[in-house]
Amino acid sequence: MQYRQLGKTGSEISEISIGTEWLYKKKQEDVKVLVEEAIGRGVNYFDIIFNFEPFLEQISSGIKSSRDKVLLTHHLGSSEYKGKYRKTRSTGECTKNLERFLKIMETDHTDILFVHFVATRKDSEGS
After folding, report:
1. pTM of this prediction?
2. Domains plus CATH for the chain?
């Protein structure tokens, strides 16, 4: 695997990375095997857009034994309501989602925080 520096962060990121959206609703054991195999082959960047608890648990099952080898991205503003994806700018909801993400992923930090759902300057002003 080849790596490149991620901006000015000093972090090295694999040229091949895993966007996880397509893994939603896949079998737990399939997700675990795929994630473990990817890490074993040097993939170290996992972009985790969804905040559905079962989905996070699936991803976590493959990452937890190799957490020190991966960079996790959490999407601040990506939420769920009654099992459906939704966007939010609510500070309270974003905080709750991040805390749940960290707990389920069995980590005390996310390596990259992607501010989701900001397309215009007005969006960045919050609500």
Report:
1. 0.84
2. 18-117 (3.20.20.100)
